[in-house]
Amino acid sequence: MNITFGALLKDFRIRAGLTLRQCSQELGVDPSNWSKLERNITPAPKAEILERWFEYLKLTADEKQNLLDLGAVSRREIPRDIATDEVVLEALPVFFRAARGAEMDKEKLTKFVEQVRKLHTADT
Amino acid sequence: MAADLIAARLSAERFRERVITGRPFDNFPVDSFFIADNILRIDLIPFPNLENLLDSPAAIKPNLREMYVDDDLFGAYGDRRAKPWELNRLRFSIAHELGHIEMHANRINEVRCNEIDDLMELFNRKDGPRYCLEQEANEFAGRLIAPVEKLREALEGFRKLQTEPRWRDSAELRAQFAQLVGRSLGLNEEGMRTRLDRDEIWPAEWTEGG
Fold it and tell me: Which of A89, B87, B122, B195 is the most buried (most CB within 10 A)?
């Protein structure tokens, strides 16, 4: 399987010993957006932005080029469509530690599902 | 069907041995966030308002590779201004989800939603397989964050400081001990009291009126 932009970005972050929160905070990116990049939901940002990240992630010349190339591919390939119901269904949680006695109502469920959809849709 | 708490404890010990012991992050409090993100490479997805909507600080998707984390708690991680109880909550919740990943991969279909409305039924049902699996994940998280040998060691240190022969009878001293050890292991007081009971370190029933 060919590596994607998001997977390579995650590899470099982890190699640098950074958590998603530390990395996104230091680079001034919203953690949700960084998460979307690593999951290949959002296309890579433009090369000028990526170049600002290289030093922080301590990339070699080859690694920089590789990330730029995959970034260009992702900008062409990743669709910006709204996540389908099928995607949302796959994204519903199976396990969660809920407070004892808590009840979920229809309104909360609707908001929850809406949020799941947003988290699996690229920002337009 | 009952929750298998003993299996969950053993599973936490095996996980510690395999993933944590002897590694640079083998410290207390257990950094479950770092372990999930950087070691197991789980995708942690900040989820706005998750605690309010789902009444849960973290939740895992059926692929067991992606985990939603309430974004306020997500923001608390690594923030020096964060309140200890928030970090403890985040630590425990992520450790709980790690328990599901470790123990329940072959039981996903028992709790999976095939329609969006199933989620409400799943959430509101207070018995059945999901309830047992959640109990097991809680036990996993408790044992991972507060290993029994650490608790015994702490109790031994505490015992040496006591001058009253019947110190174990005191519910007040037990509460102090729970707070003290909870602070060093990063577990909230209620969770620590549960460990003291379940691991028979200092059960409430040993104290007067307990």
Answer: B195
Q: How much is the ipTM here? A: 0.85
* Chain A residues whose beta carbon lies within 8 Å of the beta carbon of residue B49: 111, 115
Yes or no, beta carbons of A94 and B119 under 8 Å apart: no
As assigned by CATH, the class of the A5-80 domain is: mainly alpha
Joined tokens for residue A45: 């940002």
**Rounded distance, CA B178 to CA B202, Å?**
9
Which of B173, B200, B207, B209 shows the shortest CA–CA distance to B9? Answer: B200
Angle at which helices A5-15 and A61-77 cross, to 10°: 140
- How far apart are alpha carbons B47 and A74 in whole angstroms? 24
Task: Say if the Cβ atoms of A19 and B100 lie within 8 Å.
Answer: no
Q: What is the pLDDT of residues A33-86, one digit of tens each?
A: 999 999 999 999 999 999 999 999 999 999 999 999 999 999 887 666 788 888
Domain coordinates in residue numbering, chain A? 5-80, 85-123
